[in-house]
Specification:
By secondary structure, the chain is mainly alpha-helical. The chain is built from six helices and two strands, in the order E-E-H-H-H-H-H-H.
């Protein structure tokens, strides 16, 4: 007669994994990083998107290209993508600064930046769940 082993202990931790600059990062439910990561986590993908948005905006404002379609054709990319990226030129300065300095929350990704977001800066803070 073998007695049954005692039931195992099971612990559930509500975390998720996100890709950040090619690395997996553990993200807690409140959006913070679970591991004591360095205070600066630079996401080059998001930085490049913001830089591209401002560059394209300047090209349109200077009259180098007459429309988003013309710019997209010159860059050999889809006009829809150009439009989504160009929205980033309207990001609140505090959000842009946080991304540039690597101080943005772990939950914020390039994919989330390219999705529609409000134009009002205060609404952006709430939308992207930034303090």
């Amino acid at each position: 007669m073998n007695p049954e082993p005692p039931p195992g202990l099971q612990t559930t931790v509500p975390i998720s994994f996100r890709r950040r600059g090619g690395k997996a990062v553990i993200v807690l439910p409140d959006g913070s990083r679970a591991v004591g990561a360095p205070s600066m986590v630079i996401d080059n993908t998001m930085i490049k998107l913001i830089a591209r948005a401002h560059r394209w905006q300047q090209l349109l404002l200077q009259g180098v290209y007459a429309s988003i379609e013309e710019l997209a054709e010159a860059e050999a990319i889809n006009p829809s993508y150009v439009s989504r990226v160009m929205r980033l030129s309207c990001l609140a300065p505090s959000i842009t600064e946080a991304i540039m300095e690597g101080q943005h929350p772990a939950h914020l990704t390039a994919k989330e930046l390219l999705a529609p977001f409000p134009l009002a800066w205060a609404a952006q803070q709430a939308h992207f769940k930034l303090g």
